[in-house]
Amino acid sequence: MIKAKKSLGQNFLVDENILNKIVSIVKIKNKSILEIGPGTGNLTSHILKNGSKKLIVVEKDKNLSIFLKKKFKDKINIINDDILKIDEKRIYKEKLIVFGNLPYNISTEILAKWILNLENNDYWFDFLILMFQKEVANRIISKFNSSNYGRLSILANWRLNIQKICDIAPSSFSPKPKVDSSLLFFKPKKNFYKFINPKNLEKITRVFFNQRRKKLKRPYNLIFQNNFDILRKLKIDLNLRPHNLSHEIYYELTKEYEKL
To answer: Whole-prediction pTM value?
Structure first.
């Protein structure tokens, strides 16, 4: 009997309707698939039933890796490691469709790592189909001028088109989490702002959202030292607050920062 480990944020998805819904979002027949956190293999079984060409799973839990090996034998390739320590671009030679019931405690870290490690127009995946805590998902898809809007939304929307598929109740999992979940679909953008170093976007948003309820004047001057030319060019009012600026303004600010 496999028991979920609270320390690894394990909640196994058991709802057949939701499992079927997840594998029907995109065509996976004859496609190469990566599954993050397969747990006891419930979604894994559905992926295999839908005719995937290659299925690679990343499972940190050693006991679960052994369980999955016995259950699926050579039908899957198992990487027993921490996804945060893996170079995702080296997992497989072909582009992957990625499924993940991400551990809530590291879900944002995983997504941020994948985005910041993208190189120019190169994507190592075709699509990402990922589950998050509902509160986190709302932050990812939030628009400016809303209370949920912040760094995560700005970063995720830089390289990805994002669609919310559905919310998922705690009753769909075993053990039941204390919060609702949401399933998000991510598709690579062909056109996006080009930066010298994507981590500059991370820096800009960190400084601006460090005190999100304060006006823009202080964070702006910390970075741009009262540069009024940039203010005029981007039509920024320093009496506004960080959540009042659109994604595009933060991308433009990053480009201006890289010129300094």
So the answer is: 0.94
